[in-house]
Amino acid sequence: MSALxxxxxxxxxxxxxxxxxxxxxxxxxxxxxxxRPGIGVGGWIAASWLIFVxxxxxxxxxxxxxxxxxxxxxxxxxxFTDGHILGTDSSQRDVLARLVFGARASLIVGFGAVAIxxxxxxxxxxxxxxxxGKVDTALSSLFDILLAFPQLVLALxxxxxxxxxxxxxxxxxxxxxxxTSIQILVIAIGIVAIPLxxxxxxxxxxxxxxxxFVLAARAQGAKGGRIMIREVLPxxxxxxxxxxxxxxxIAIIAEGGLSLLGVGVEPPDPSWGNMITENRNVRSAxxxxxxxxxxxxxxxxxxxNYLGDAIRRKFDVRESAL
Amino acid sequence: xxxxxxxxxxxxGRKLAQLVVVLFVVTLFTFLLVRLLPGDPVDLLVPVxxxxxxxxxxxxxEARRQQITDDLDLNDPLxxxxxxxxxxxxxxxxxxxxxxSSTIPxxxxxxxxxxxxxxxxxxxxxxxxxxxxxxxxxxxxxxxxIFDRIANVSAFGSLSLxxxxxxxxxxxxxxxxxxxxxxxxxxxxxxxxTPFPGLNPANWSFEPRTPDSVPDHFFGMLLPALSLALGxxxxxxxxxxxxxxxxxxxxxxxxxxxxxxxxxRVLWRHALRPSSLTLLTVAxxxxxxxxxxxxxxxxxxxxxxMGTLIASxxxxxxxxxxxxxxxxxxxxxxxxxxxxxILYSVLDPRIRNVRAA
Lengths: 322, 357
What we know:
The complex is a heterodimer.
Chain A: H1 17-25, H2 29-34, H3 40-59, H4 95-131, H5 133-147, H6 151-162, H7 181-208, H8 212-219, H9 224-260, H10 272-278, H11 287-314, H12 317-320
Helix pairs in contact in A: 3-4, 3-11, 4-5, 4-7, 4-9, 4-10, 4-11, 5-7, 6-7, 7-9, 8-9, 9-10, 9-11, 10-11
Chain B: H1 2-35, H2 41-45, H3 55-71, H4 78-90, E1 96-98, E2 103-105, H5 106-141, H6 146-160, H7 163-178, H8 214-247, H9 251-258, H10 263-285, H11 287-301, H12 306-315, H13 319-347, H14 349-356
Antiparallel strand pairs in B: 1-2
């Protein structure tokens, strides 16, 4: 989002002249040679961490964790006391349970938003890059306009817009079908991701649809739609997979940023973002409750970035074209 | 030559037309934000509960409703409302926030929120470039060496750690833990903001912990600016490094070296200038990104800027303030990006040709 957390978006728009330099920077050549067949040891460590986090988050209700919202009594507990491995926070809630259930919320937002962005943005980008001409001009200017918004502010506006009116209980009997805060975040961040992912898909599609095998398919009389789905799409997908991983990290960070602005996952349900927000007063906040979500966020986003980079290197269009 | 000038003018014209379209969409979007919120806008904006039996309360509420309807021209058709709204916006009338007894112009809040945000963005940009220059140059010079590797790993790490997380870590380790043991003239608080005491040096105080203290202002902004700068630093540093590596392979560098000019001088005088063009371009184009990130950093550090204003208006459900602040941030972002884009396209023929193609 933005912005947010928007510095990490830099390596993503590949059509840009200035940013080609970022990509060219890449890994030292020797390293790339060595890791050519696979994603390297680091890639496997990153993948294992991600699988572990996703598995624990997914299975959280079945595992013997405390309730993430149950308030205890008595003083706040430090690390490793009374069966609370990560201690408790200032409302005596178990930090480990909140971290695990928070992972659930953060990952749903991250993967869900990117899924929306991928399906909508990916198809639009594929069409724009494959059809070219007027379709491309129309879609590309649409993406450019959407990209002109500061991403975090756009997400923020969308969330405010989608939130049910007056969260105060006074006058809201008719909001039975309203969305949960997690669904709203998925939609809002997903919409923000659409133009970004569309532009990258378009660039990748452009380079693939000029290759000889597309010409060969055309010469054999294949229709446009078939070529797009059967010939171009399978080649575009690996590159998109790596971009998707990077985007999940950005979406998770965006949830954190939106939490700090007051529109994240609705408390008392935890997410990494609202755990950080609840404990952001560094003078008095319990450090276990502040630092553990930061560490979890950092490791997960770094694993996503690393794995995304490793996959991008493996499937790099420019290198494999040689 | 004249065809070249013509193509530049054409390019500027196209970019300006694009800017106008984007500005229209951005303002329309923020305008609709309040008008299309579920429910009657008046119900959202009236600050008091409407189910009361007290006669005088009812009268006040009715008067308020009437005033809000008039102020926002809610009885006009939507396009006319938009034109009235944008007209007011351009002339500095950002609407009003309504409380039970008073009507507070939003422009007051915005005017006081703009300087801290501008300062934060300016300082962090300076910090990011100042940090990126030496690190990028040295890691390019000793490519593959230990310094280069450490720089690369930490750049990768800081791209994975969002600014607000860096901010909280700095606020705790520096603001809470380190600050008490620093000399008294260095005051780095974990939160809060000391305004810059104006441009008149007569008002400046150099005593720490006084209202007009200049050092307090800069030390107070150090942590927020640093946490905003680190993510940018990583991007800038990697750009500069790869450009430097290319430049160092050029013949004129070999020439300079063979004339016996010292390595340091070759690096800083001969190689840095041609290598820094991309860095400066990207630094300019990152201002928009910084605006977005600054919004969150302000909330972390309690700096009373646009971000804090947006956050507090969300929590207080002050929709007019929210609308106007979002519009201002978005417009600033759009205009700055467009102007810099035009500037760089005109200055740098490489960009111009890439974009024109």
